[in-house]
UniProtKB/TrEMBL annotation:
<keyword id="KW-0813">Transport</keyword>
<dbReference type="InterPro" id="IPR003439">
    <property type="entry name" value="ABC_transporter-like_ATP-bd"/>
</dbReference>
<dbReference type="GO" id="GO:0016887">
    <property type="term" value="F:ATP hydrolysis activity"/>
</dbReference>
<feature type="domain" description="ABC transporter">
    <location>
        <begin position="19"/>
        <end position="254"/>
    </location>
</feature>
<dbReference type="Pfam" id="PF00005">
    <property type="entry name" value="ABC_tran"/>
</dbReference>
<dbReference type="GO" id="GO:0005524">
    <property type="term" value="F:ATP binding"/>
</dbReference>
<dbReference type="InterPro" id="IPR027417">
    <property type="entry name" value="P-loop_NTPase"/>
</dbReference>
<keyword id="KW-0547">Nucleotide-binding</keyword>
<protein>
    <submittedName>
        <fullName>Iron ABC transporter ATP-binding protein</fullName>
    </submittedName>
</protein>
<comment type="similarity">
    <text>Belongs to the ABC transporter superfamily.</text>
</comment>
<keyword id="KW-0067">ATP-binding</keyword>
<dbReference type="InterPro" id="IPR003593">
    <property type="entry name" value="AAA+_ATPase"/>
</dbReference>
Length: 273
C-alpha cells in the first residue's frame, strides 16, 4: 500500500504548475450552488478529496471546473486560465469522469477505452499502440476480462470502472472524479483508490475526487476539502479537516476520529446530533 505521508508532493513539487481555484461561483439556471469559493492551490501528484453531505455542491464544483457549467471566477493551471476556453481546449488540461457511463451504448469496453485516446490530437496514436495502452489500463484496474463485453450489458459498477479507464488512459494533467467507487464492492473500492493514488504520483496528475466514505477519503488523500451549502467548511490534511467538531457541524453526527492498530485514520459514528 502507498504511504501517504511519504508520498505527499507538497515540498518536492512546489514549483510545478498548480491548479488554483479562486472566487468561483456556479449553479443551475437561477439557482446558485457554489458561491465565491476559493481553495488552496493543488500541486501535481496530489489527491484531494471533496467530502460533504448531499447537495453540498461537490459535483457542481467538479462540473464547473471542467467547463460543463457556466461559472465565474478563476480556474488556473499554472499560468493558463481554464474558464472561458473552448471545451476542446479545456479537455487538453482537465478530464471529468461522471459517476457512470450512459447505459445504451453498444460499443465494447475495449473500443470505448481506445476511443478515449482519440478525443484530442495529443493522444491520437496508431491502432496497435492505442489497443495496448487501453489493455494496460484495463489490466491495472483488474477488468481486462471485460474488454470484449458491450457497455449496455455491464453492471453499474462495471460501467463505473470502464468510465475510470477511459479517463486514466488519456493521462490528463487534472483528473476530476465524481464518486468513482460509489457502485463498487470492497475489493474494487480498494483497488481503484490504490491505483488512483499511484497513478497520480507516477504521471504527476492533480486528482480532485468526490467521496462519501470518510475513512477511505482520509486514507488515500493528501488533502481534504469539506463542503456544505456550496462553501468550504474545512480544508487541510485529513487530520486537520476531519474532526469531531466538523462532523458534528456538517453531518449532524457524533463521531470519533481515531487511528487503528495499523495507523490508518478511521471515523466511527456513534449517534446523530
Amino acid at each position: 500500500m502507498t504511504d501517504i505521508a511519504s508520498s505527499t508532493p507538497e515540498n518536492s513539487m512546489a514549483s510545478a504548475p498548480a491548479l488554483t481555484i479562486e472566487h468561483l461561483s456556479a449553479g443551475y439556471r437561477n439557482r446558485p450552488i457554489i458561491k465565491n469559493l476559493s481553495l488552496m492551490p493543488m500541486q501535481e501528484g496530489q489527491v484531494v478529496s471533496l467530502i460533504g453531505p448531499n447537495a453540498a455542491g461537490k459535483s457542481t464544483l467538479l462540473r464547473a471546473i471542467a467547463g460543463l457549467l457556466p461559472a465565474t471566477g478563476s480556474v488556473r493551471l499554472g499560468d493558463v486560465e481554464i474558464l472561458g476556453l473552448p471545451l476542446v481546449d479545456q479537455a487538453r488540461h482537465i478530464t471529468y469522469t461522471p459517476q457512470e457511463l450512459p447505459q445504451q451504448i453498444a460499443l465494447t469496453v475495449l473500443e470505448t477505452v481506445m476511443g478515449a485516446l482519440q478525443v484530442s490530437r495529443e493522444n491520437r496514436q496508431d491502432v496497435d499502440a492505442a489497443m495496448q495502452k487501453a489493455i494496460d489500463v484495463l489490466e491495472r484496474l483488474g477488468i481486462s476480462h471485460l474488454a470484449m463485453e458491450q457497455l449496455d450489458r455491464l453492471s453499474g459498477g462495471q460501467r463505473q470502472l470502464t468510465s475510470l479507464a477511459q479517463t486514466l488512459v488519456r493521462e490528463p494533467k487534472v483528473l476530476l472524479l465524481d464518486e468513482p467507487i460509489s457502485a463498487l464492492d470492497l475489493h474494487y473500492q480498494l483497488r481503484v483508490m490504490k491505483e488512483v493514488r499511484e497513478i497520480a504520483a507516477e504521471k504527476r496528475m492533480i486528482v480532485l475526487v468526490v467521496l462519501h466514505d470518510l475513512s477511505i477519503a482520509a486514507r488515500w488523500s493528501d488533502r481534504i476539502v469539506v463542503l456544505a451549502n456550496g462553501a468550504v467548511v474545512a480544508e487541510g490534511t485529513p487530520q486537520q479537516a476531519i474532526t469531531p467538531e466538523v462532523l458534528s457541524d456538517v453531518y449532524q453526527v457524533k463521531a470519533r476520529v481515531e487511528s487503528c492498530s495499523q495507523g490508518s485514520f478511521t471515523v466511527m459514528v456513534d449517534d446523530v446530533v
